[in-house]
Amino acid sequence: MKKVWLWLLLCVLAAVVCIPMYFLIDGSLMGKGEVTEYLAPVMQNKNGFASFRLLPMYPTLRSYVELLLDSPEFFVMFWNSVKLTLLILAGQLVTGVPAAWGFARLRIPGKRMLFQLYVILMLMPFQVTMLSNYLTLDRLRLLDTHAAIILPAVFSTFPVFLMYRFFENIPESILESARVDGAGSWTIFRKIGVPLGSSGIVSAMVLGFLEYWNLIEQPLVFLKDKSLWPLSLYLPNIGLEEAGMAFVASVVTLIPSLLVFFAGGEYLEQGIAASAVKE
Amino acid sequence: MDKKMRHIKRKRYDGVLFILPSLVGVSIFLTVPFLDVIRRSFTDVIGENFVGLQNYRTVFQTSAFQLASSNTLKFVLVCIPLLLVLSLMIALILTESFGNKSRLKHAYLIPMAIPVASIVLFWRVMFAKQGLLNGILAQFGVPGKDWMNDSTAFVILVGSYIWKNLGYHIVLWTAGLTAIPKSLYEAAAVDGASWWKKFRYITLPNLRAVLCTISVLAFLNSFKVFREAYLVAGDYPDESMYLLQHLFNNWFRELSLDKLSAAAVVVSVIIFLGIQLLEKFWDQEEKSR
Q: Complex ipTM, two decimals?
């Protein structure tokens, strides 16, 4: 009996946690008129208070059609986001996976110190490194290009750290027997390390996607040209007067994250756990 | 013999090529520039004349810095304990009653997937002067207020941070809890120990290492709250939620590179100390098994 109550409590709490998402989807299915009617007090300083309905009175996909067909700037931003996220993740795969393997399993002079440097860099908030980043990018003449966002993110040390945790757990005996068979370190990495550490690699990519799909600070500081902005920076600049549009844009931004979330939930969990707790 | 020696030598540092691309990039984009910031913190605004500790003195005397650091400290002290206790409670109930495979956990992770930007819309509608919250309160005859432009802005910030990070910490705790050997609880159950006794004498002691790690990580990650704060209230939010991160951004815009460098170094030192603590706990975790 007690169990049922606890379960109910947790369900209610989980529902509360999910309210904002429901609100966005709900609003996106209302027509412009309906949204305006409910939110007029907030949008146009009319008297009274804003209200909302659990389900749209007149559900319609018109706002979606309008956004997807009639707003070219939305597409530009959407593709900017896709491009930034994919290139960053690809770069992290190419440089980060071998680095994590090297730190976890191979001999490197000064390894302990270097790895500690990686941990320090991983935990520095953006505001601390913002200035140094800015100066470097300026010197390399990369400001106001997508490379200004991509390159520093590619060399973020968090994915290296995360994959390191997974590579560390591969039993030494497997590597040893491969070595006895005469496999070189590259072969061992490719044939044993990558397949056995694949859940770590996927975890890093899932966490990375959620992070980079959401970029705010970096583009805000490094990109002046609005046509280069990602979706995440465009959204907060839609005024409340266009609430209907903002709802749909929010949901469209949310969808890729949710897809990755549901497809990779298990890996997300593993990745989070590995970032703090040693197995 | 000579050939064998060379072979051993080559094998000794076989990892260098693996980390080289990453290391070069990290040096160019992170390490070298950061060293430059340390240098700048001791020079004037152009970055040429050595001024000793002058910048540090200026920073500590600026009232904006005092306000921002005390707010940030307040935020950390209020938010982190709340977040840790709440997530531990949920993780306990989840693992004890439903096993660690419960789907319910995923619901708490969903806020991680929601772009901060799109949630701002909800916040604005909810907490505006004529927003939903005041509308609901009015029905009960309670007078509302402009939540975002008042000291309640701080509470909303804490709430958003907890909302966003609850799932993350539930997962961390669950990982710690499932690592505790089941046999300990079974033995205690045979002895007829109460729930509280089991929690006090089995769960807590076994969670100690994990608890330290999670606390320090939560502290270090709390510097990232700026994203929420910025989106909710812009560059100049209510005084109660003016954080170090806002100050950094404003100095950056004014190009006060001298002050910004000095403040960045101060924050890095604090974070560095936190990391030393973290590494100590990780080593303990390693030894305790």
A: 0.85
